[in-house]
Amino acid sequence: MSARIAVILAGGVGTRVGLDIPKQLIKVAGHTILEHTLATFDAHPLVDEVIVMMARGHLDAVRTIVRDGGYAKVTQILEGAGTRNGTTERALEAIPKNGPADDAMVLFHDAVRPLVSPRIITDCFEALDAYDAVDVAIPSADTIIEVDENNVIRNIPARANLRRGQTPQAFRAGVLRRAYVAASADPGFVATDDCTVVLRYAPEVPIWVVAGEERNMKVTDPIDVYLADKLFQLTTNNLPPSRSEEEYRAAFAGRTVVVFGGSYGIGADIAAFARDHGADVFSFSRSTTNTHVERRVDLRAAIATVLAATDHIDFVVNSAAVLPRGPLVETSEETVYAATEINYLAPVMIAQEFHEHLRRSSGSLLNFTSSSYTRGRGGYSLYSSAKAAVVNLTQALADEWSTDGIRVNCINPERTGTPMRTKAFGDEPAGSLLESVEVARRSIDVLLSDHTGLIVDIRRDDPLEPDA
């Protein structure tokens, strides 16, 4: 059976993104772009091995990523060349010829397309059973124009026949080698991708087109980093799966969970679930323990209470919040300070006070935001602006604490039926709100996961089954 090899092309330097590191090392949704891409290929059942072609001077970063991520299928980490074509040729040199047939299946994928789906990878390998060259593309929704050297339109091709190219591009190794040998004899050889090389220098080889996906985007410009981050948030398949009852009990056995805002709503449901599955749970709130999360002295008292009963803290959940409503100009100074302190300063101080304890346990911190964080809402500006700040705090802490082994994530639930919401908005139509226990269950999946830096959207249409 032919070897199936994935080559990750990570040779770009990302000058258009405006950073001093290659764009494939930028963090998106808690991990570098390269990690997201590697994880997809490493987990794919049809991929036998992975070769990473990395920009000069950054191979050690890739070695660290591969080692820490346990990407067992990565067999080689090599320095890329100065051009895309040169990098492909170096990769081909690293792939041995398996006899005269030289028929290894090789997929070349841009590292900065981190949202490639397993379906695309499968389709590429399966297409290589019938074709020696395969591209991935999507229809063009825009009209494409061709201009001359004077920037005047020369031609407007029929859109029905146009596609926007993506990656992977897949080949039988021998076919691509033969095309590059022919290209090397052409003094005017220029190409930006490998299918172009086959099309021009092995024209007898048909190139099959696999259907791509809009989400299989390439991170090239600064706005792409933001878009990719949002796409990861909105993709249920990238969220931690639910567990069986036995798995939850195993995950919580001997663990200590601290919950702020645990007297009702989502916080209470998280505390109850963790307690029911064997965790030692300590719940704090204004109404039950007279704990004010915005007061550092109260946080330290909570820590002392926990450590009087156990010697470790594994998970910290902060669901405490207030939702004042009304025009900002009519809001009292007391309300402004109280809302800001509880909704934003409290998460800051919780992070400061619990950092060392979570570092010792390689633990997890879970914050909560609101769907209003993406766009400030009239009538509760203090709440939505503070929740936007919590999102940024979560992402920043995930970066700062990654070397400490602490995971930091944030839950963004759609409108949820909680006493706080009922107090602010009154009774709402049945079926229009998420159940608090549903949000708590998904939040626990994130709390227990290995992910960090995620802003997890929970919506009414998200499945809760183990294969979610």
Short summary:
The chain has helices at 33-43, 59-69, 84-94, 118-127, 173-184, 194-201, 222-233, 245-252, 265-276, 286-289, 296-309, 333-361, 381-400, 419-425, 436-448; strands at residues 4-10, 27-28, 31-32, 49-54, 74-79, 105-110, 133-139, 146-147, 153-155, 163-172, 207-211, 256-260, 280-284, 315-318, 364-368, 407-413, 416-417, 434-435, 455-458.
Structure description:
- The protein is α/β, with parallel strands linked by helices and 468 residues long.
- The chain has a 7-stranded mixed β-sheet with strand order 5-4-1-6-10-7-11, with helices on both faces. A 6-stranded parallel β-sheet has the order 13-12-14-15-16-19, sandwiched between helices.
- Strand 12, helix 9 and strand 13 form a beta-alpha-beta unit.
- The C terminus is likely disordered.
